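Hey, I was hoping to borrow your eyes for a little while. There's a protein on my desk that I can't quite get my head around. The fold is given in discrete form, as structure tokens running alongside the sequence. I'd be grateful if you could look everything over and explain what you see. Here's the protein in full, and shout if anything looks odd to you:
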Amino acid sequence: MALYEFEGKRPSIGAGSFVPETADVIGDVTIGEKCFIGVGARIRGDYGTIVIGNRSSVQENVVIHARDGDRTVVGDNVQLGHGSILHNCTVRDNAVIGVGAIISDYAVVGNWAIIGEGAVVRGNIPDGAVAVGIPARVVGEVSEEQKQEWLYYKNKYAELASVRYPAGFKKISD
């Protein structure tokens, strides 16, 4: 894994989390237990603080950053889809951020909210809401069936981070 100290601040990675060498984790970053960090992810705690809760999935090419002296917080059991961008925002527990979505400065994504692919969130999305579009607008509520389906995938990513990747991920060439 590519962990970098920045101005005396070092990342902290929780037990059972997987961070590949091609992901960059810089400075004031805390990653919880059993988190999956995908190839090409950039988690930059150089200006502000980044906190990622337990069992969260930061998929390939996600960028997480914060403003000077501020923070970006990702809760427990969150899924950040491929290529999404989070900047100086809060994503609460169990939320799902779709592929390529952008969560902008000071936005808050509620518990169990689902943000559609490519959406741009500039404000607050309530707990249990489904939001899509540019700018993101609430179009529905997350059903119990959807929660169970997402919980299945979140458990799979926690297993991927803590069991499958440590046992089966091997570089085969330089």
About this structure: The mean pLDDT is 96. The domain at 1-166 is CATH 2.160.10.10 (UDP N-Acetylglucosamine Acyltransferase; domain 1). The CA atoms of residues 27 and 46 lie 5 Å apart. The two ends are 15 Å apart (CA to CA).
